[in-house]
Amino acid sequence: MTANPVATPTIVLVGHGMVGQRFLEALAERGLTATHRVVVLCEEPRPAYDRVQLTSYFSGRTPEELSLTDREFIADHGIELHVGDPAVAVDREARRVTARSGLVVGYDTLVLATGSYPFVPPVPNKDAEGCFVYRTIEDLLAIEAYAKSRATTGAVVGGGLLGLEAAGALKGLGLTSHIVEFAPRLMPVQVDDGGGAALLRTIEDMGLSVHTGVGTQEIVVGEDGAVTGMRLSDGSELATDLVVFSAGVRPRDQLARDCGLAVGERGGVSVDERCRTVTDPRVFAIGECALAADGRVYGLVAPGYEQAETAAATLAEDEASFTGADLSTKLKLLGVDVASFGDAHGTAEDCLDVVYSDSRAGLYKKLVIGRDGTLLGGILVGDAEAYGTLRALTGSVPPVSPESLVLPAGAGAGAQLGPSALPDDAVVCSCHNVSKGTIRGAVTEHRCTTVPEVKKCTKAGTGCGSCVKVLGQLVTTELEASGVEVDKGLCGCFAQTREELYEIVRALRIASYRELLDRYGREDARGGEGCETCKPAVASVIASLAPAIGASGYVLDGEQAALQDTNDHFLANLQKNGSYSVVPRIPGGEIAPEKLIVIGEIARDFGLYTKITGGQRIDMFGARVEQLPLIWARLVDAGFESGHAYGKSLRTVKSCVGSTWCRYGVQDSVRMAIDLELRYRGLRSPHKLKSAVSGCARECAEAQSKDFGVIATSSGWNLYVGGNGGATPRHADLLAQDLSDAELVRLIDRFLMFYIRTADRLERTSTWLERIPGGLDHVRDVVVHDSLGICDELERLMAAHVAHYRDEWADTINDPEKLARFVSFVNAPDTPDPVVAFVPERDQIKPDLPLLSLGIRPADTVLEGSAQR
Amino acid sequence: MTLAPETTDLKVQLRLADSWYTVCDLHRLEPGRGVAALLPDGRQVALFRDRADRLYGIDNRDPFVGAAVLSRGLTGTHQGRTFVASPLLKQRFDLETGQCLDDESVRVATYGVRAR
Ligand code: SRM
Ligand SMILES: Cc1cc2nc3c(=O)[nH]c(=O)nc-3n(C[C@H](O)[C@H](O)[C@H](O)COP(=O)(O)OP(=O)(O)OC[C@H]3O[C@@H](n4cnc5c(N)ncnc54)[C@H](O)[C@@H]3O)c2cc1C
Ligand code: SF4
Ligand code: FES
After folding, report:
1. Distance CA B81, CA B71 (A)
2. Which of A499, A486, A472 is nearest to A761 (CA)?
3. Which SS3 state, helix, strand or coil, does residue A10 take?
4. pLDDT at residue number A421
């Protein structure tokens, strides 16, 4: 075969990895794909994908979702992409590249983006069956298949960034996992000894075994030639069925060497500041295969992207250069917060460290500060919250003292440095090199008003994702600053916050939503209908203050009924097909057999789907609206009451079995859980409230994940507050220790009422505690030390709630007027909604979803049995 | 339409192709809350009454999820127009035009309503 005649100038790209793809995008953006023929030789069986997020394959991301490119991009720009066909030779004289398939392409410009290969130490049997590397999707598929079919234990050679990711992945595959690291600490490149110690603790707590300071001497194989273990340098042998080598990477520069291009002493194709090889002006090298002008080979994606931009700019005859980049990293391993940025090891002359270390809590934070106060770099282990901001501040003098930046919130200082303190040229997203100024511009000039819009507009946040938090803060600040009113008001009807409305309702004893809207609403909302946001919020405020302001505590009385969200309105939870679920209260999760039988009978008689909930009670699904009163009549009769699964109010107080039965229990956790659940049931609050009581420090009830959690001690109870499961889990903070029963209840009374008074709408205690100025310390001052002098009042409010509590369902089924609401159709109360239908599944029912998409049944079947026309 | 205050035994009627169909007593409609009505041909209508006693009728089916539940949503005012927010995924629908305020491409049917 011969080279194609070169009509238009041809760019040949060897390697379609992350940097290669970025280079193609840069060519397209600069219009070069229109003026050039672009040919890509891609070795892997698939086009470029997100290698940085490779490990997310094990948490369910498919190879397709990892892809960085699509057919349209390639087609629209006329790019000739040859998948699965690597370059095997370059003839620089004749300017042509030969691919494995025999394809020969002539070039005017050749760009090498061949990346790296994983380094495998030359130990005996390193290629045995069961040995893997961790670089490509194919590697992961192979590891997964092997782990599932024939391994129970896995070991990773190398305790660096990738090694830890790989070890986490092996653990996720269900293997007992080991990490073997030659250096005396984990992540030796990024963290120092102190950070390594904190990291070690966290990793071990995750159930991974770590062996530091030992090398791998030999892979031990069984008779079938497959791995059975590893011999280590201390003479010991580690039994394992699978080995992943993650001992660093080396630039893939063989192709370059073979055609006579200069490479560095330790590998990497030597290039200048414009990413041109020093040997041949027609050849460029970018990404991990390049030895940059500053003498470094970069193993991170962000510098590679910059090189891709530089090479494309050079080809377009634009000004650009790559002279070096930042080596910041944040570990993506689930559950481990580790980040390092800038000059993390303090190599600059005369620099100083500021260190906060708490090895008990697995916390370690170090900042490296120059003589003049400039932040040079740092290491964060255990809490990398501030990473985004600190990384961007690197190179400038932070506006607050360095000490206050490392101290944890609540430990004295804890200055919360927001991204507003950043200078405009601070790089917020280092994956895509996006500065704060660019992000601001996206808001002010390109009129982006949400984070997803800004991501799309600037690419920021679309790489490793570690900057997204700061991005969100910036967008809000910017919107506020540019006058795009980021209204603090509750909604379009009220300019006040929920807290302010609470104070108005309380002080002026306003028990009517209409009155509140007409007097205190925004000008143009007065006299209107209000909206779906403020109606339930105000209804909740009125309900939680009901006894104090002389309103009815019953949420379906008078005007209040019209304000409730649909769930509260029907005292049940709406499901996707228009049916409801029913959850009776089972305080503390304790239930007598007789009552269990009643639930079973009711569910059977009404044909309901039953499920044990995550809250230690039983949910019955599939009740039609007109069945709710019938079901509840039987439940109330058997002594059940509403479980408020529908309300922003107390859900469950979970309990463990405690000292009555458990050999470890030190207090009666079941009794306490029941007492608390009965005390706070029905309490309307800004968001739902959950609680749990554990009988000893083993914590079987998971109290530390609750809004208020109680753990027994030998001398009383410890109270934890602000815990949360859900999407953003938060461990609760210890509020007070060794409380008596009475002290515990009094403190919870105060805590809950203070929360109800000051929280925003739909703000759980966890986010509230994080948001309010002073945080936990302030709350403790208020509710323990009575610093605001309001504790008496808080207690009085709670006492009034407890005294006035009534079961909503008992009240409802005894009131014919309220019952009139529970009909399918106002004109045909006995005709069930024909769209609510079910099909069988696993011996129970589930909604007939296909019917939902049709939306309607033929008329003749519908009106059958209709009592009224 | 607007009503004289405190008129009692009025009936709510829906306009069908060529007639008015009587649904229920007016007092069954609480301001700010809806009810569902079943038409002879099987269609379902969500009926509402606002603070100013204006009446509205729209198709009861939530076009996003498919369930017939719009009558169970909360009403509100947006730029002077009355809407209902679906109780499922909270999309809002203009009660007069049926236009979804959160998705231009979606609109539900509306019905003429009167009380007499
Ligand atoms: C039924 C149940 C799942 C189950 O089958 O086990 C459930 C079901 C729902 N949960 Fe849940 N959650 C259930 C336990 C939990 C738990 C576990 C627990 O309570 O121990 C959690 C995590 C703990 C926590 O809340 O901190 C949980 C975190 C959530 C969240 C996220 C809250 C957060 O702060 O991030 C929501 C969404 C929300 O409330 O905004 C939610 C919302 C919902 C809703 C209300 C969603 C909806 O609007 O339809 C579901 C309706 C239930 C229904 O129709 O009856 N559910 N939900 C559980 C009922 C427990 C009970 O007896 O009351
Ligand atoms: C598990 C994992 C996690 C990572 N996490 C991070 C992180 O959090 N942050 C970060 O910055 N970086 C991370 N990295 C590193 C990042 O993926 C690389 O820096 C980036 O992929 C480099 O891009 P590249 O295009 O230079 O190389 P690659 O993406 O490796 O692409 C090179 C491509 O060239 C192909 N190729 C090689 N030789 C030839 C040939 N002769 N002909 C044709 N094709 C050839 C290869 O098959 C490969 O597809 C991680 C890497 C891994 C493996
Ligand atoms: S928390 Fe303690 S007392 Fe309760 S069940 Fe667990 S071990 Fe037993
Ligand atoms: S820093 Fe990685 S996506 Fe922004």
Report:
1. 17
2. A499
3. strand
4. 73
Task: Return the pLDDT at A464.
Answer: 72
Report the alpha-carbon distance of residue A134 to residue A558 in Å, rounded.
65
Query: From ligand 4's centre to the CA of B28, what distance in Å?
Result: 57
Does an H or E element contain A78, and which? Answer: none
Whether the Cβ atoms of residue A783 and residue A750 lie closer than 8 Å to each other:
yes
Please name the residue that has the structure tokens 């109360």. A829
Nearest CA to ligand 3 atom 2: A696
Subunit contact A866:B38, Cβ cutoff 8 A: yes
CA distance B67 to chain A (A): 5
CB-CB neighbors (< 8 A) of A831 in chain B: 38
pLDDT of amino acid A355: 81
Chain B positions with Cβ closer than 8 Å to A: 23-24, 28, 30-33, 35-38, 40-44, 47, 50-51, 61, 65-69, 72-78, 80, 82, 85, 87-88, 90, 92
Q: Give the pLDDT of residue A606.
A: 96
Domain ranges of chain B: 5-115
> Which residue's CA is the nearest one to ligand 1's atom 23?
A725
The pLDDT of A737-766, averaged and rounded, is 95
Q: Which residue has a Cα nearest atom 6 of ligand 1?
A: A613
3-state secondary structure of A524: helix
In the block, which residue shows the tokens 């990398």? A384
The architecture of the domain spanning B5-115 is 3-layer Sandwich (2.102)
Q: Tokens for A577?
A: 């097909």
What distance separates the 2 farthest-apart alpha carbons in chain B? Answer: 40
- Which of A826, A831, A854 is nearest residue B35 as measured by Cβ atoms? A826
| A42 belongs to an annotated ligand binding site | no
> In this predicted complex, what is the ipTM?
0.71
CA angle, A188 as apex, A184 and A189 as ends, to 5°?
160
Mutate to test the interface with B, among A827, A862, A866 (most CBs of B within 10 A): A827
A304 lines ligand 2 (CB under 6 A): yes
For residue A859, pLDDT beyond 50: no
| pLDDT tens per residue, range A308-347 | 999 999 999 988 888 887 777 776 665 677 888 888 777 7
Is B67 in contact with A820 (Cβ distance < 8 A)? no
The whole-model pTM stands at 0.56
Cα gap A759→A771, rounded to integer Å = 9
A696 annotated to bind ligand: yes
- Residue A866 clears pLDDT 70, i.e. is over it: no
Confidence of residue A187 (pLDDT cuts 50, 70, 90): confident
| pLDDT (tens digit per residue) in A37-72 | 999 999 999 999 999 889 888 877 888 889 999 888
Query: What residues contact B86, with CB distance under 8 A and at least 6 apart?
Result: B62, B64, B65, B69, B70, B73, B92, B93
Residue A479 tokens, joined: 């919107």
**A796 is written with which tokens?**
């009085």
Domains plus CATH for chain A? 10-115+252-316 (3.50.50.60), 120-247 (3.50.50.60), 326-417 (3.30.390.30), 419-483 (1.10.10.1100), 498-559 (no CATH), 565-647+806-818+828-868 (3.30.70), 649-788 (3.30.413.10)
Q: Compute chain B's Rg from CA coordinates.
A: 13
Looking at every residue in chain A, the average pLDDT score rounds to: 89
CA distance B68 to A811: 28
DSSP string, A592-615: -HHHHHHHHHHHHHHT-EEEE-TT
Residues of A in contact with B32 (CB under 8 A): 529-530, 535, 562-563
Q: Which of A199-208, A307-316, A464-473 has the lowest mean pLDDT?
A: A464-473
Position A740 pLDDT exceeds 80 = yes
Contact (Cβ atoms closer than 8 angstroms) between residue A305 and residue A320: no
Mutate to test the interface with A, among B13, B74, B89 (most CBs of A within 10 A): B74
